[in-house]
Amino acid sequence: MDPFAHTFAGAALAATGLRRATPLATAALLIGANAPDVDAVLMFSGDYLSVAHRRGWTHGILAVLVLPLLITAALLQWDRHVRRRWQPDRVPIRPWVLLGLAILAVASHPLLDWLNNYGMHFLMPFDGRWFYGDALFIIDPVVWLVLGGVAFLTWSRRPAALAAWGLFWSAASWLMMTDERVPDTARLLWIFALAGLLAVRWLAGTGRLPRWPGETVAALALALTGVYMLANLAANIPARAEVRGALTAQGLGPVTQVMVSPVPANPWRGLVVAATPGGYYTGHWHWLGRPRFVAAPIAIPANIDDPLVIAAARGLHARRFLTWARFPVARVLETGAGYRIEFGDARYDRGPGLGPVVHLDRKGRLLAR
Q: How many CB atoms neighbour CB 341 within 10 A?
């Protein structure tokens, strides 16, 4: 998920009352909820290093144990050298409670990341397999409204915080209104929900609301978000089964792998990729449609077993890309010097073009770029 979703998850956990468990509890929850994304520095490395290793070591089972220790140690040092140095009489930290909160926050990060179709290395560094939830789009307005709404109502009393929230809600609304993939119904629901949040915040600021049960609301928001996520996960199971059955009934099987991927702000729709011996069949899924699955008439050829593609896959950039690719495809083009091999992943670009380009000579040997 996006950084805002992770931050809102940590903030919502804090708002349930966990922030009172020990001093610096909120800091542990917010830092822990974002800490696994330290591997984002790989995005500046180029050469497809990021796609091969993102959501790996810092998101795996070992990181859930190591990162909380580092976060707790850093906060203890902050407490010793900054917080209590100037005010020695302040309430001391409870180290084991702080560690438990850091573990909870760090563990929430890979769980949320697993929900989209990018993939997760849960077992790193012991096993490099990818796992996919295919339940939520990477930016989900429901998560922003529910968990972000709790954080907004909890931490928006100071003018600077209120200004920052105003900037965020304005940018989020611009995204919702301008993205052509977002349906009009979702836009209307967003406007009404955001207006409701702003109304509650205004009434609370004027003192016209009775005592606000913030911790209870935060717990309910987390529970509601969990139900929403579980519902999307559960709905994916029969959707995949129906796609598999439809393709098999048309004599296009056996179907070895199916993805019904979420689309922005529309839980009724999905994008489909299914792996068959004839290539990848893509299409659209709609829970309210008749039929629910509409497949493209022609399959995308994978070409991964082509000898030239196998030779090109030995290149460093191709190896890194194929480590991540879920539905790898390749296009072989003849050039004056030999061959041009273009790699892609059918779940995103419906064909080659997303990945690296490798050049071979007439004998199938790698050429320098």
A: 27
Q: Which of 295, 315, 350 is the last residue of a domain?
A: 295
Residues 330, 325: Cα–Cα separation, whole Å: 11
Task: Count how many domains the chain has.
Answer: 4
DSSP structure string for 36-86: GGGGGGGGGT-TTHHHHHTTSTTTSHHHHHHHHHHHHHHHHHHIIIIIHHH
Q: Is residue 367 part of a domain?
A: no
* pLDDT, one tens digit for every residue, the chain (369 residues): 899 999 999 999 999 999 999 999 999 999 999 999 998 888 777 778 888 888 888 999 999 999 999 999 999 999 988 888 888 888 889 999 999 999 999 999 999 999 999 989 899 888 889 999 999 999 999 999 999 999 999 998 889 999 999 999 999 999 999 999 999 999 999 999 999 999 998 888 777 767 778 899 999 999 999 999 999 999 999 999 999 999 999 988 799 999 999 999 999 999 999 999 989 999 999 999 999 999 998 999 999 999 999 999 999 999 999 999 999 999 999 998 899 999 999 988 765 568 899 999 998 888 865
| Pair (98, 17) in one structural domain | yes
Residues 169 and 234 in one domain: no
Query: For residue 219, which amino acid is it?
Result: A
Task: With respect to residue 132, please indicate whether it lies within any of the assigned structural domains.
Answer: no
115 with 234, same domain? no
Decide: 120 and 132 in contact? Cβ < 8 Å: yes
Q: Does residue 219 lie within any of the structural domains?
A: no
Instruction: Give the integer Cα–Cα distance in Å for 123 and 160.
Output: 41
On whether both 44 and 111 belong to a single domain, the answer is: yes
Domain that holds residue 250: 230-295
Residues in CB range of 124: below 8 A, 6 or more apart:
56, 57, 59, 60, 61, 62, 63
Helix (H) or strand (E) holding 330: strand 328-334
Q: Is residue 225 part of a domain?
A: no
Phi, psi of 273 (to 5 degrees): -135, 130
